[in-house]
Amino acid sequence: MRTKVITGVALGIFFACAILFLPKIFIPFFMCGLIIYALNEYYGILRSTGLTPARLIGYFFSCLLIVGTYLIVNKTPMENGLILSNFESSVLAAAIITFFLREMAIPNNTKITQNLATEVFGVFYIAFLLNFILKLGFMFRVPEDALSALPQGGRMLLLYGIATVKFSDAGAYFTGKYLGKHKLLPRVSPKKTWEGVGGGLVFAIVTSLIVCKLTNFSFGSLEFSLLDAFILPVLLTFAGLAGDLCESMLKRDTGIKDSSKDLPGMGGILDVLDSLITSLPILYIYVIYVV
After folding, report:
1. What are the C-alpha distances in Å from 168 to residues 51, 132, 161?
2. pLDDT winner (highest mean) among 40-49, 195-204, 247-256
3. Are the C-beta atoms of 184 and 193 separated by less than 8 Å?
4. What is the band of 147 on the pLDDT scale with cuts at 50, 70, 90?
5. Are 59 and 139 in contact (CB under 8 A)?
6. What are the start-end ranges of the H helices in 129-266?
7. 9 CB contacts (<8 Å, ≥6 apart)?
8. What is the 3-state secondary structure (H, E, C) of 60-96?
9. pTM for the full model?
């Protein structure tokens, strides 16, 4: 457990520094590197089952999605979000067609359906969902920081979402480890308990209130209410839990324990990002339609 805690703290510091201080020129490179890293682990899971996913095609369209989104949201106000929507749709459509053509070109291909399903899923699951990092970071500006590399409000909104989710994960882990008795979903993740879920909720709500207090409930052009500060951590906790369980389901289906061994005590980068992959889109949807 000591190794897990040390690795977790180190990653937390690394991502916090990246969010708060990363210069403009490095943002798309950082995002592309993160997504290629995660995709590579995902493809490794698939290869362990005998599938042969088109890795380079997945990398290309994922990076195209990230770089294009960066260029659009860095210059386009929220009111013109239709441009971004059209761009994303076009990239994803082109990716699907290219995956089809690749499978068609392989002689004696006996796993066309499996390869296609998992290739397309990987781009949507990792690249499309993690792309919400850029949307959250850039699309809620106030006029005075319109030309900033990553507006201060966007930086703090990202920090709010990631801190709330990861402290929820930590609370669930420690509460479940020491107090957990009632299994949550043993066929998917045998160690998760309802007590852990409760602990995660408490940690998430406390983190949400602290960050909101520090920012005076203001994130760029967004103004949170006290009710938002209570509702969001509940939504993010369960969205993060769903992401964790989804990745556990994928690993259990393929018979592996961790997505990789790169991060001591924690497994791979997918094991770290799983809860964020599903929770950050929920944060985006909430602030778009509720706040």
Report:
1. 35, 20, 11
2. 195-204
3. yes
4. very low
5. no
6. 129-130, 132-138, 152-179, 194-214, 226-254
7. none
8. HHHHHHHHHHHHHHCCCCHHHHHHHHHHHHHHHHHHH
9. 0.89
